[in-house]
Design goal:
67% of the residues lie in helices and 0% in strands. The protein is rod-shaped. The N and C termini lie far apart (72 Å).
Length: 58
């Protein structure tokens, strides 16, 4: 371990950066829908007219 790494640990710089990054990620999660949520939303919007389909015997 380098002296710079030791200093960063002693000064909690790494911990502070990890916390800030985590908070940013959580904030982004809460403000933008996830891909899964968006896909479900799109799917629900596109399936509104499915009741009009008739089954055809082949």
């Amino acid at each position: 371990m380098t002296s710079e790494q030791k200093d960063r640990i002693c000064n909690d710089i790494d911990t502070q950066m990890m916390i800030e990054n985590f908070q940013r990620q959580e904030q982004l999660k809460s403000t933008s829908p996830t891909l899964e949520q968006q896909t479900i939303s799109d799917s629900n919007e596109n399936n509104q007219n499915d009741d009009n389909w008739e089954s055809v015997q082949t």
